[in-house]
Design brief:
The chain is α+β, with helices and mostly antiparallel strands. The chain has helices at 25-40, 119-137, 145-161, 175-183, 189-201, 209-230, 235-253, 257-270, 275-278, 280-283, and strands at residues 8-15, 54-66, 69-81, 88-102.
């Protein structure tokens, strides 16, 4: 097998339907440029075969455009295969609501680990490394350390630039807040949760559903509840919900009565606005 170094298999879509302009070609050019950047950049030194690349997608909604300046929202998603099955589990499902950058048509997107070449490449680097970090954490304990170090470096360069979206405490859901949610001691147990949930949970489903679900129950009650206690408004809590709540509901609809009771109590406390969805657990298999 030929080994490649590009880590991502990324689908990109740029939607500018909200923008009034006589020339829409710039948005297609931008879409192609981002696609090329995400799929042909070697973000790390790791070696990936074609079948090992991380499937992900970026959906950019442009809300304003003028004088080469774009602003809008970016939806970031990634998935991971589950061992011994055809099931694909969601890893990242996050919406960055404050994306702003300058882009001149046909301007090359240049990758660098030492300088901030542009606001656009900094945003792309941030989410590329975040996707890689969280994927790596799901395969080995704190396996995303190196990628999270890169995320930290990108955030520091972004903060020095003065551009929006990077400053600490500017926004509880901005890029600085996302980094903090996964790396600060009070909330970094989310990373341990990812490992146990996936390697000792989902990946073990094919060999033993009962034990695998017990492992998931243990890590949710232990790690997720601890993070919630330490920082109930952390964006990491919301990120985990957006990626995993539907899946967790499906898992526990088939659970035992004791498991359902424990998980219902936990989820209803942490995610009170999702009660209708969570209640499906109680009704499942009844």
């Amino acid at each position: 097998m030929v080994l490649l170094s590009q880590e991502l298999n990324c689908r990109v879509e740029v939607n500018a339907d909200q923008v009034e302009t006589t020339s829409r070609e710039v948005f297609k050019t931008l879409e192609n440029a981002i696609t090329d950047y995400m799929n042909n950049t070697s973000f790390t030194d790791a070696r990936f075969g074609d079948n090992e690349k991380i499937d992900c997608s970026l959906f950019l909604t442009v809300k304003e455009y003028g004088n080469d300046r774009l602003s809008g929202e970016l939806q970031i998603q990634s998935t991971r295969p589950v061992y011994g099955s055809s099931y694909i589990t969601p890893m990242v499902n996050f919406r960055d609501q404050n994306v702003q950058f300058d882009y001149r048509q046909y301007e090359p997107l240049i990758f660098s680990t030492t300088t901030m070449e542009s606001q656009l490449t900094a945003i792309l680097n941030f989410y590329a490394y975040l996707i890689i970090a969280l994927d790596s954490d799901s395969f080995s304990p704190r396996g995303g350390d190196a990628a999270f170090q890169r995320v930290d470096e990108v955030v520091k360069m972004g903060q020095s630039s003065g551009e929006t979206g990077w400053r600490r405490f500017e926004d509880s859901r901005n890029r600085s807040a996302v980094l903090a949610a996964w790396t600060e001691p009070s909330t970094s147990k989310l990373r341990d949760l990812l490992y146990t949930y996936h390697r000792n949970g989902l990946d073990e489903m094919s060999s033993g559903v009962v034990k695998a679900r017990e492992n998931i129950t243990e890590t949710l009650i232990g790690n997720l509840s601890e993070v919630y206690t330490n920082a109930p408004m952390s964006v990491g809590i919301a990120m985990f919900r957006d990626a995993k709540l539907d899946e967790i509901v499906e898992i526990y609809m088939k659970g035992t009565g004791d498991e359902k009771t424990k998980i219902l109590k936990l989820l209803e406390e942490i995610y009170p606005t999702d009660i209708t969805k969570i209640e499906k657990i109680r009704k499942g298999n009844n």
